[in-house]
Backbone:
């Protein structure tokens, strides 16, 4: 049986699957439910310091190949985070990753300092949401100096809690952005946020379907982009920073591909709509079956495997 | 690899031209679309008014050829929808969620409050086709707010019971009170229970009353719960309920009473689009 457990930066994960931010997890009860479906860790929806309204429906649409979303990062603010994370901490089946968002580097520091008090196992910093651009301009993840500035501000208040920066694939050189964050103190990366943004038009009404007109692309179609970005970040940081590989994972084999590119943990979000809530357990079972047939005893030996196989790394 | 429970084909809205508009009451409208989405009684669709908003709607009928929604013009979007005319475009996606389930020839009590009468009529007509005998309890504030009364009267093997808060038609009081009265009156008249199952759709306070009655009388029930929904297929998580963490767009809206009674917020509070709790 291939071992799927590991300890990264002092946090033990029973398996590498992680509920990705923005999907399902708006309450303590929902994090526990996802844990019961086999997830090795859960991520909160992006937490704002103050109440933040999302976009009007339609906000999520899918086909067999892709999902477009412009939910607009709605959240009730820090009071709700205190209530839900506080509740979760009383009976915590798997590690909790607190995902935070803000409009300025200083405000990232403020929300980080509040969430740190709630003792999440990891802080994930969302600097890459593509569907609030009208409100806030280009995401911080699109510029090395901006991304580094946010990283530095969060690291200044995060104490011993590891800080993962969630990166955007919608940049010229994701490796360079990752390096800038690593130099500013980032402990790890979540790669990737949604792609695009993209658009879908209704033929008869001739209107964009999403109220926000554009939305971030996820689902099966984006996996090759995610794999490439993971490989870029792994190479740029010399494999020194753990990566949560996220984007289009549907099966255990998708997860293994991400490990080979350099991920240690595997984010699953949109996949829930394609395989149901038990996708976490299914992916783990499929990873184990693959490990058994290939004679791989421990998942950890797969992490970054492609880079070691390539003649030039 | 589509999930068996959540069909993929209707997650992208398609706009259809309205085939007919019927004013049921001053505030309630039924719209007919020339399409079947294969919806079953109890399921919902997302109805999109391009440029305005998309909202969840119970399906009032899907007969394999046409689909109907019946709605109460209570908010900005439903008021704008109510102004549409034949030939105007509305986007539909779905169907989503669970459905009412019965066995052929069962005896069913159907409890409908307010515009809950529309999805309940869909369940009633489908169950009647399966040879079920029906006791229908329709409730409303007053006579002019009663819905689908004539349609229920036309169904075979159906007894219709009407309750109005003000007594302007039928029993004066709540429909659940009327059901309770009938269940109690007929308790000892037969060896078998009066009905095999109870279905309910309406305001959550009414559902709580049905849940309690169903529990006390040991008659299984299926209740349709309403929560704020965005995606409709289990991604956004807005319709999760405490403490189970289940999503009512996937594991609901029709929920069996044994599950309802484990939902601590049932009848007490619900969450808004930001995930903030509000008392009923």
Residues:
């Amino acid at each position: 049986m291939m071992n799927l457990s590991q300890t990264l930066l002092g946090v033990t994960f029973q398996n590498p699957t992680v509920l990705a931010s923005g999907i399902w997890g708006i309450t303590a009860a929902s994090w526990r439910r996802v844990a019961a479906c086999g997830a090795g860790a859960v991520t909160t929806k992006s937490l704002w310091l103050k109440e933040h309204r999302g976009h009007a429906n339609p906000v999520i649409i899918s086909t067999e190949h892709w999902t477009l979303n412009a939910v607009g990062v709605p959240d009730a603010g820090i009071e709700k985070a205190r209530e839900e994370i506080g509740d979760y901490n009383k009976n915590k089946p798997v590690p909790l990753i607190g995902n935070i968002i803000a409009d300025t580097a200083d405000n990232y520091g403020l929300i980080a300092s509040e969430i740190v008090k709630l003792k999440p196992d990891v802080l994930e910093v969302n600097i890459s949401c593509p569907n609030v651009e009208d409100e806030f301009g280009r995401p911080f993840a699109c510029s090395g100096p901006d991304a580094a500035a946010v990283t530095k501000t969060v690291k200044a208040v995060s104490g011993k809690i590891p800080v993962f920066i969630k990166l955007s694939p919608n940049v010229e050189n994701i490796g360079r952005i990752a390096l800038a964050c690593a130099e500013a103190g980032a402990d790890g990366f979540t790669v990737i946020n949604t792609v695009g943004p993209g658009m879908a038009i209704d033929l008869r009404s001739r209107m964009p379907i999403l109220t926000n007109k554009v939305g971030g692309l996820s689902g099966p179609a984006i996996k090759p982009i995610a794999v490439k970005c993971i490989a870029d970040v792994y190479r740029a940081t010399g494999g020194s920073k753990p990566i949560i590989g996220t984007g289009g994972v549907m099966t255990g084999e998708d997860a293994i591909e991400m490990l080979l590119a350099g991920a240690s943990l595997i984010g699953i979000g949109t996949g829930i709509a394609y395989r149901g809530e038990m996708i976490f357990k299914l992916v783990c079972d499929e990873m184990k079956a693959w490990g058994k047939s290939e004679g791989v005893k421990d998942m950890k030996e797969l992490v970054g495997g492609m880079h070691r196989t390539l003649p030039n790394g | 690899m589509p999930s068996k429970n959540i069909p993929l084909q209707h997650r992208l809205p398609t706009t259809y031209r309205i085939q007919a508009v019927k004013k049921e009451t001053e505030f309630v409208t039924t719209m007919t679309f020339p399409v079947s989405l294969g919806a079953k009684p109890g399921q919902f669709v997302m109805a999109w008014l391009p440029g305005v908003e998309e909202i969840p709607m119970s399906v009032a009928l899907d007969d394999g050829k046409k689909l109907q929604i019946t709605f109460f013009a209570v908010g900005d979007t439903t008021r704008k929808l109510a102004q549409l005319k034949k030939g105007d475009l509305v986007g539909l996606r779905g169907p989503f969620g669970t459905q009412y389930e019965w066995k052929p020839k069962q005896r069913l009590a159907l409890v409908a409050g307010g515009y809950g009468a529309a999805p309940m009529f869909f369940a009633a007509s489908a169950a009647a086709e399966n040879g079920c005998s029906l006791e229908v309890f329709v409730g409303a504030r007053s006579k002019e707010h009663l819905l689908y009364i004539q349609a229920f009267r036309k169904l075979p093997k159906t007894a219709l019971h009407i309750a109005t808060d003000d007594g302007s038609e039928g029993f004066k009081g709540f429909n659940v009170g009327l059901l309770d009265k009938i269940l109690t009156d007929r308790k000892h008249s037969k060896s078998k229970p009066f009905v095999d199952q109870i279905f309910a759709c309406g305001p959550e306070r009414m559902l709580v009353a049905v849940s309690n009655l169903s529990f006390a009388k040991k008659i299984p029930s299926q209740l349709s719960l309403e929560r704020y929904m965005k995606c409709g297929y289990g991604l956004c998580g807005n319709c999760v309920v405490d403490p189970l963490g289940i999503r009512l767009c996937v594991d609901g809206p029709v929920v069996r009473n044994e599950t309802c009674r484990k939902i601590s917020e049932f009848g007490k509070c619900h969450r808004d689009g930001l995930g903030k709790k509000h008392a009923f």
Notes: The two ends of chain B are 39 Å apart (CA to CA). Chain B has two domains: 14-96, 107-279.
